[in-house]
Structure formats: structure tokens, C-alpha cells
Amino acid sequence: MSKFLQGTMILIIAGLITRVLGFVNRIVVARVIGGEGVGLYMMAMPTLVLAITITQMGLPVAISKLVAEAEAVGDRRKVKKILVVSLTITGMLSIIFFPAMILLAPFLSQTLFTDPRTYYPLIAIAPVVPIIAISSVLRGYFQGKQQMKPYAYSQLLEQIVRISFIAICTKALLPYGIEYAAAGAMISSVIGEFASLLYLLYMFKLKKSVKVRAKFFQYVRSGKHTFTSLMRIALPTTGSRLIGSLSWFLEPIVVANSLSIAGVATTLATKQYGQLTGYALPLLMLPSFITYSLSTSLVPAISEAAAQKQTLLVEHRIQQAMRLSLVTGGLSVVVLYVFAEPLMQLMYGTSEATIFVKVMAPFFLFYYFQGPLQAILQGLDLAKAAMTNSLIGATVKIACIFALATQPNLGIMGAALAIAINTVLVTLLHFATIVKAVSYSVYASEYVKACLSIIAAGAAGYVSFHHTFVMFPLLMRTLAAITVTTIVYLLLLIIFQLIKREELAQIPAIGAFFAKKKRK
Q: Is the pTM higher than 0.85?
């Protein structure tokens, strides 16, 4: 069993559980504080992501890559230097950005977001910056060693702790106002991240092969070369993520002001933005836990293969990632498009955001490719190219939001279309960059077979929901129809050989079956 597929499978299983738990969080928040409260929550979130992106400096990816290379040659001293220098950088940056978030909160809430109530969520989330700064270094370390279990379990723990506190915090603060309840949701996130950090520290102490505290400052002083190596990868990666984070930071500002130009009141604009980014987008992004797991495993796997000049293995990894992204993304598009309305109704108790899901779902097939493609670029030392692609996409998205959302007949739908345009554009640019950099063959027949599987499964799901299971209650009807859709889709994938036996064998139950059969 390859480390790449084994690590990916661990992350996929943990990612599925994490995303389901994350959705429980969102459902609780949505039902307690409603669309307007979710709007306040989602307006504050991009500011946090921007602060974290700057604090991390792209180091998790750089650490993962350099640790993988050091482990390949058994250089423990280099691993220690990587950790010491990384912790020093993130520690210093978090000391700057934690108070900066608190000081800038009044200006951001009153001037840029046009809704002063965002002040309280902004203040509540600020303490998470130094916590994530340290935990991201440890996660990068475990990824580089291709030990995915600590990384995966830390994510699970974070969600479990967050769920334990989410209802308590939001309900306790709701009587004081929606803005305080949104701040309560942020506080539960801080507690969850802190629990995750404690677990990572415990696992690092348990599994570490180097002593970080011994001669710490000596390693800092002699870490110039390590710092340069980290920055060579981290800065372009930061640039790429910074562009994405800055774009997301500007998004609610541009949307709020564009809707204002279109004549939409501030309260309604906040509610509509909450429906798009708090209801529709999380549902569309839910299946990306699979491609995110691929991305996390790809950076060290591609880096190691490239360092050993194994070009055939590099192409094999890319082919695996693209095919798995295609088949998982295809099922996601079918389920989200066909069952958008019942899913929204069951999860949030309202189907108001259904139109966003239906319009954006076909475009999001490209989104499921985007993470793995970016990870491949980083593994091939093409992070600068990924940054350029992200910059082009972000510029086009902001321009499209302003051009489309200001139209009275489009409004918030203009913002949804702009996000879809950005998704398609960046994915195509990433793919074009990879094709130029490495030898890569595109098997058109696989994509044709996948499209046929998507259409057939979608038709089966539609007939099942609207004709076969109409006598069942909504929940049972939806689950039964999704089950039929999934079975039809998986059968077609097996018939068309879009899922290989090697990949099926990584699933514990199926792997045991294959092993038993082989012994016989």
C-alpha cells in the first residue's frame, strides 16, 4: 500500500466526518441566528482568514515539502532547523496581527463592511490567530513525514469541541442581539482550534524524532539557509493564498457596496450575502474534503518523486489525482443539482438559497479539480505560477462582482456568477500551467465516460425523487433518491473502469476482501 494512497484515504475518511460535523455546526448556527446572523458571521470570517494567511506565510506547504525532502535522505538536523525557524516566524507574526485585528475592528465594521454589527464577531475571533500560527507548523511537519493521522484527528477534535460549545455560546448571547450571537459562534471556533493545538502538541511530543527546545536560539541564529529555503517556497505560496484571502476579504465589501448601488437595503444585503456564503457555498464546497485530502497528500508525494527525478511516478500521481477529482466531483454535481431544494430545506429549514446552488453546481465541477492542481504546482516548485493564476482569477472575480451585482435585475446573483467565473478560470489556468511543465497525457475517453455517468445518475435521481419515492416523507424520500443516484453512478464508474482495483483496495473492508481472495 503506497504512503500516498494510504495517507489520502485517512484524510478522506477524517475529512468526511469533519465536513459532516462542520455542517452540523452551520445548521445549528443557521437555525439559531438565521440568515442575517449568518451574514454577520460570514462577513467577519474573510478578515480572519486574511490575518491567518499573512501569519502562516505559506509555511505549512513549505514545511511539508522540505521535511519530506529531508526525511528522504534521513537528515534529522535539517528537520529540526525547519521547525525552529518556522515557529519563530509564525510566533513573531502572530504577535503583530493579533492586536492589529482588535485595533482595526472598529474601522472595518463601520467603514468597509457598512454594517457596524460585524465589530463583535471580529473581536471574538481575533485570539485564534496565534493558536493557528503554531498548529499550522505542526500540521506541516506531520504532512511532510506523511503521518496523516495526527493531522486528521486534530481536525476531528476541533469540530467535536466546536459543536459542543456552538449551541451554548450562541444561545447564551442571542438575547443581547444577533451580533452577539454571531460572536458566540466565533468564540466556539476559537475553543475548538485551541483543543486541536493541544492535541497536536501532545502527538508531537509523543512521536517527535527531534528535540525542538534544545539549542533553540542557536538554531535560530544559524538558520539563515533554512529561512531562505522556506521563503523560496512559502512566499509564492503565500502570494497565491494571500490573493485568495484578500479577494475573499474584499468580496463582502464589494458585494455590500454593489448591492447598495443596486438599491438593496443594508439589512437585506447582509441577509442575502449570508444565504449565498453561509448556506449555498458551504453546501457546494462540502464534497471538496476528498480533493482537499488529495491536495494535502500530493505536495509531499510529488515533491519526493520530483526530488528523486521519478518523472513517471510524478505523472502517475497527477493522473490519479485528476481521475479521483473527476469521479468524486461528478457525483457531487449530480447530487447538488438534482437535490438542491430538499437539501436546503432539510438542513436550514428554508429553500431560499436553492437558486444559487442550482446555478453554481455545474461550474463547481472545476472547483473540485482546483485544490489538487494547485498542490501539484506547489510540489513541482511552480508556486509562483499558481500565484499568478490566482491573481488573474481574483481580479476578474472582483471586477465581475462589481459589474454584475450592481445590476438591479441580478443583484446578489451577480456575485454568485462572478464566483463561478473565477472558479472555472483559475482551474483552467492551473491545468494549462501543469501541461506546459510536465509530460502529461489527457485521456479524453475518461471524461466522456464520466459525463455519461453524471447524466445517467442525474436522470435516475430525478425520476426516483419526483416519481418513485413520492409517498415517503421528505427526509426518507431525499435519502432514498440520493442512494439510488449514488449506486447508479458507482456502478457506471466500475463498468467504465474509472475506479481502479488498486484504489478500491485502499478502503479497509474492500482491501480485506481482496487480500482474502488473493490468499485463496
A: no
Q: Rounded to whole angstroms, what are the CA distances from 280 to 175, 250, 398, 497, 499? A: 27, 19, 19, 32, 29
SS3 call for 104: helix
Write down the pLDDT at residue 240: 65
Dist. CA 409–CA 422, nearest whole Å: 21
Residue type, 459: A
Mean pLDDT score, 439-460: 88
Residue 186 · residue 25 · CB < 8 Å = no
* Side-chain-side CA neighbours of residue 385 (13 Å): 21
Distance (Å, rounded) from C-alpha 8 to C-alpha 290?
A: 8
Q: How distant is the alpha carbon of residue 137 from its chain centre?
A: 18
Chain centroid to Cα 238, Å, comes to 16
Q: How far apart are alpha carbons 520 and 516 in whole angstroms?
A: 6
DSSP state of 109: I
- As a whole number, mean pLDDT of residues 99-127 equals 84
Q: Are the C-beta atoms of residues 273 and 39 closer than 8 Å to each other? A: yes
% of the chain exceeding 70 in pLDDT:
85
Q: Greatest CA separation found in the chain?
A: 72
Q: How confident is the model at residue 506 (pLDDT cuts 50, 70, 90)?
A: very low
Residue 161 is given by DSSP the state: H
Give the mean pLDDT of 249-254: 83
Angle between helices 178-207 and 3-56 (to 10 degrees): 130
Looking up cell 457546494 gives 284
With 90 as the cut, is the pLDDT of residue 340 above it? yes
Packing angle, helices 3-56 and 224-261, rounded to 10: 70
DSSP label at 388?
Answer: H
Q: How far apart, in whole angstroms, are the C-alpha atoms of residue 197 and residue 340?
A: 36
DSSP-H helix ranges across 380-473: 383-405, 412-437, 444-463
pLDDT for the residue 209: 60
